Amino acid sequence: MLTLYSYPTLFGVADNNGYGLKVFAFLRLAGVPFRHEHIFDASSAPRGQLPYIVDDGETIGDSEAIIAHVKRKYHLTIDDDLTTSQHDTDLLVTRMLDDLYWIMSYSRWKDERYWKQFRDALLREHPQLTEEGLVGAKDYNAKRYYFQGIGRCEPDDAMARGVADLRVLSHLIPATGFLHGPKPTSIDAGIYGFIANIYFYDIETPLKKFITAHDNIARHCRAIHNAVTSRANA
To answer: Counting beta carbons within 10 angstroms of the beta carbon of residue 201, is it exposed (0 to 12), middle (13 to 18) or buried (19 or more)?
Structure first.
């Protein structure tokens, strides 16, 4: 059976990282059986990054590569009805979610207004962690943000960039159904991966305030969350 290795839960979300949650949701929506192993240490992962899967002895990292592999191997039809234009939209949204990842991560580890709430939530839900270890992770992430570029922004400017990404989603997500119609496709799993890691968190960042103020985004998040949770419990 396929095994997904990704970061642990937080605030009732199956993975506290958008990329791992994206893969989790995709596998659930596509009906692919899998085991889910939660880990903190990514040192043995491909490229030193989570998530990754092990499937019949083959190890694959990167969320997009994972989804492409699973579609091909298991002959999945979840995206077969999409038009060329819709596939193009999916790629553009995926790249925008890559941008949103950095702001979402910045809001947890770099923005001092929210860091302590995030730290305390991790320590509360995962008592094997230590404050010293999390401070080390905070320092490590600060270096990542600086070299990526978002770490050179003031907190309000970083949050404004994330809100701009979310505003685009607010224009794309319909009031009912999913991005491309009444049934979810791969891109809906991707959107959920990042939105759920903002919406369900008990931390009132500008990103969460924007989502809660736009019912179409919040409704979409809840719909995918209910679908993947019910499938997980089935």
So the answer is: buried
Q: What's the whole-number mean pLDDT along residues 199-212?
A: 98
Rounded average pLDDT over 23-38: 97
How does residue 233 score in pLDDT terms, banded at 50, 70 and 90?
very low
Cα 83 from chain centroid (whole Å): 25
Secondary structure (3-state) at 137: helix
Domain ranges of the chain: 2-233
39 three-class SS: coil
CA distance 118 to 60: 29
2-233: which CATH number, 1.20.1050.130, 1.10.357.10, 1.20.950.20, 3.40.50.300?
Answer: 1.20.1050.130
